[in-house]
Write a structure and sequence with these properties.
alpha/beta; twelve-stranded mixed β-sheet
């Protein structure tokens, strides 16, 4: 199966000022050079306000179902836009589903505006529905990155498509290690108290992996592991765990995460939108949540993702798509779960296949081998 890549560069602007120049580039299998289309998008302040309401109702719906611990609402950026949680006096799952539908319609009505509709029509005429389609939304606006782009009608009409987001600027990490040998895939799992460790260990035992589990680690403990001389291939970070989020943030771990990337870290999965900050750290690809998932559902998503990515050897995009869609099965109890996963990419780095993980390592010295033996590998959790 070939792969098509569609990059939508939104340029400068936001939902209050509009986007005077939007550039879309489509690369198709067998053609090195892309086709390019230019359009624009008008202001859409109602979409910004609707997304802010969606966030707050999501949090409120989860609170009523005792899914999430209480947390203060975080205003969505915008000129004069602020919706307080106290203004939402009644929340139900039915209300939330109606709001999801309204947000879906509003976003697609905006994307069907004349300045952008011409781009979509031309893309529809040349996209091959039998090939996988990777859609990348390039923007520096956090609100735009968090919109449910997987609900764009064009994406929904092509079953092998999945969306991702990136910053406008990105570069290759020249310090990252190159493939010179093989080893087991190494996974670092950072967990809160409430994760079902037995279930996680059962899932991971199906694959040829080495795993370190850190349960509610201190910043020093986590930093030490991120700086591990052997390096990691995959990081699962439940940064919405019971104690983790209060003690450290992604940006506080920036130096350690950059070191992990230099030593071969290819992929990270974060259980909150705070993982968006990892895009600036140049992790090749990160899967983050628009809003925090209950820890047990984050574990379920990770299990579905690994089964597709490692077990079925799907591409990363299609593995995330499959895992996200399977979350629809828990939405009676956890509304909106399938809307939450989103992919953040560095387009300057080739996305890995599972079969390529474990090959980004240099020759291991005697000191490094000693460090490996002292680590709690093979599904032992510290």
């Amino acid at each position: 199966m070939g792969t098509q890549s569609l990059v939508i560069n939104l340029g400068s602007g936001d939902l209050y000022r509009g986007f005077p120049q939007v550039v879309a580039q489509l690369r198709t299998a067998g053609y090195f050079l892309p086709e390019q289309f230019v359009g624009s998008l008008p202001p859409a302040p109602d979409l910004a306000e609707l997304y802010a309401k969606w966030r707050l109702v999501y949090q409120g719906c989860g609170s009523l179902n005792h899914v999430f611990r209480e947390r203060p609402s975080v205003p969505v950026s915008g000129e004069g836009l602020e919706i307080e949680m106290s203004g939402i006096t009644h929340v139900s799952c039915i209300d939330f589903q109606d709001l999801c539908s309204e947000l879906h319609r509003c976003m697609n009505n905006w994307l069907a505006c004349g300045g952008f509709l011409n781009i979509e029509l031309q893309l529809r005429s040349i996209i091959d529905p039998t090939e996988a389609l990777q859609v990348i939304i390039e923007t520096d606006d956090e609100l735009l990155r968090c919109l449910p782009w997987h609900r764009w009608n064009l994406v929904g009409d092509f079953p092998l498509s999945e969306t991702s987001v990136s910053y406008l600027e990105y570069k290759r990490n020249l310090a990252a290690k190159v493939s010179v040998g093989n080893r087991q895939v190494r996974i670092l799992m950072v967990l809160g108290d409430s994760l079902d460790l037995a279930k996680s260990q059962s899932t991971l035992s199906s694959f040829d992996v080495e795993v370190v589990c850190l349960v509610n680690p201190t910043k020093a403990e986590l930093t030490t592991q991120l700086w591990h001389p052997v390096g990691w291939d995959l990081l699962f970070f439940d940064d919405d765990g019971d104690n983790i989020a209060q003690r450290m943030t992604i940006l506080q771990l920036e130096s350690a995460l950059k070191a992990a990337v230099d030593k071969g870290l290819q992929l990270a999965v974060f259980n909150s939108r705070s993982g968006l900050a990892s895009v600036g750290i140049q992790i090749p690809v990160a899967v983050v949540m628009r809003e925090p998932l209950p820890t047990q559902i984050a574990d379920t998503f990770f299990e579905h993702f690994l089964s597709a990515f490692a077990g079925e050897e799907l591409s990363l995009y299609l593995a995330v798509q499959q895992a996200r869609r399977k979350l629809q099965g828990v939405e009676d109890e956890f509304p909106g779960a399938s809307w939450l996963p989103m992919i953040c990419v560095n387009p300057a780095v080739q996305l890995p296949l599972w079969s390529q993980l474990g090959r980004h390592t240099q020759a291991v010295s005697a000191d490094h081998r000693s460090a490996m033996r002292s680590s709690p590998l093979n599904l032992n959790c510290a």
